[in-house]
Amino acid sequence: MTDSVILFNEIKTADGKRFGVATLNAPASLNSLSVAMVRLLTPKLREWAADAGIVGVLLDAAGEKAFCAGGDLRQLYQTLLECGPERNEYAERFFAEEYELDHLIHTFPKPFLCWGHGIVMGGGVGLMAGCSHRVVTAQSRVAMPEINIGLYPDVGGSWFLRRMPGRVGLFLALTAAPLNAADAIFCGLADLLVPHENKAQVLSSMASTAWQSDAPADRATLSRLLAQAGEGAELPPSKLREHFDTINALMAGDDLLDIAKRLRKLQHEDPWLQTAAKTFAKGAPSSAALSFALWQRVPRMSLAEVFRLEYWASLGFCAHKDFAEGIRAVLVDKDRNPRWSPATLEEITPAFIEDHLRPRGEMAPELVSLA
User: Fold this and answer.
1) How confident is the model at residue 2 (pLDDT cuts 50, 70, 90)?
2) Beta bridge partners of 104
């Protein structure tokens, strides 16, 4: 195994064409997405997009535990402590380059398969969400847990959470509820379940297939190939589907304080739903407030506009206190006892929300050009 954090390979196909393969290669950190990974992936994907001999891309990960457990926040955390409310140039690069990569995947002109096996969280969901073909396995565990670390579901979360059935996306943003394969498919984060042990079969089928170098036709071919590999696989029960009506009732209305009151009062026999309510109660009020504000603002925005808005929001979180405090409590000191500021939703003002969303400096060049 090489030391490179991304392994690049190509699968030769029956007609002399190729499938590009990019493998996240940091299993010790559960393949957490680092700046180094992003800086390798983006140019390679652009190269493959322009290469007429490449008919599609597979994105997977080394190890059996995780596709990608989120963004690598260690270096970012140090800059949050050093910069405080002042300009943070590292954060500007970190978010701009990650969102550029996510947008590139969403708009990739060829079939793009993500093998989302194991843990898929935060930045990992950002990589998977935009792919044309998103496979989950029986071992997949998907979540957007940012409310626990004083952030909000970024990496395009404001876009894809808003497009989920009913108010499921808002529920996931506020509660960090974990999803299994069936949940991920139900809410639109994944397309189908394929047993992980059938991955070799999928790779073999990709190699033995004649591809047409026509994106719509090749996407259809890849869909058929994956359906064959997943045939007979049984989906687990979906908590999201089971509690869909309850979730919509909890999330109803246009006042976050009303939603908060319902979550705080919830008494339910299902531990999954009850834990979701408890997570909300312990999470950062600032995260909940901004997640709700973004939910309200993005319905008519383009994908590029959403990424640009998230860029300002993420820099806003870097300039306020909760993001650093959440990383400290969950990832650094691990005491799980964050001291949020403001401490309650009731203390959050419109001015506080607007200060998170205002421009700080100039828009990153990578995001200016997104269309």
Assistant:
1) low
2) none
Q: How far is CA 343 from the centre of its chain?
A: 27
Under 8 Å between Cβ of 41 and 101:
yes
Q: From 284, 327, 31, select the one nearest 176 (Cα to Cα).
A: 284
For 168-221, write each residue's pLDDT tens digit. Answer: 999 999 999 999 999 999 999 999 999 999 999 999 999 999 999 999 999 999
- Residues 349 and 330: their CA atoms lie apart, in Å, by 26
Whether residue 1 has pLDDT greater than 60: no
CA-to-CA distance for 9 and 44, rounded, in angstroms?
Answer: 11
- 8 A C-beta contact, residue 48 and residue 20: yes
Q: 187 near 168, Cβ under 8 Å?
A: yes
Q: How far apart are CA 46 and CA 214, in angstroms?
A: 18
pLDDT at 271: 98
> Mind spelling out the 3-state secondary structure of the chain?
CCCCCEEEEEEECCCCCEEEEEEECCHHHCCCECHHHHHHHHHHHHHHHHCCCEEEEEEEECCCCEEECCECCHHHHHHHHHHCCCCCHHHHHHHHHHHHHHHHHHCCCCCEEEEECCEEECHHHHHHHCCCEEEECCCCEEECCHHHHCCCCCCCHHHHCCCCCCCHHHHHHHHCCCECHHHHHHCCCCCEECCHHHHHHHHHHHHHCCCCCCHHHHHHHHHHHHHHHHCCCCCCCCHHHHCHHHHHHHCCCCCHHHHHHHHHHCCCCCHHHHHHHHHHHHCCHHHHHHHHHHHHHCCCCCHHHHHHHHHHHHHHHHHCCHHHHHHHHHHHCCCCCCCCCCCCHHHCCHHHHHHHHCCCCCCCHHHHCCC
pLDDT at 354 over 60: yes
Measured CA to CA, the distance from residue 192 to residue 185 in angstroms comes to: 6
Q: Is the pLDDT of residue 227 over 60?
A: yes
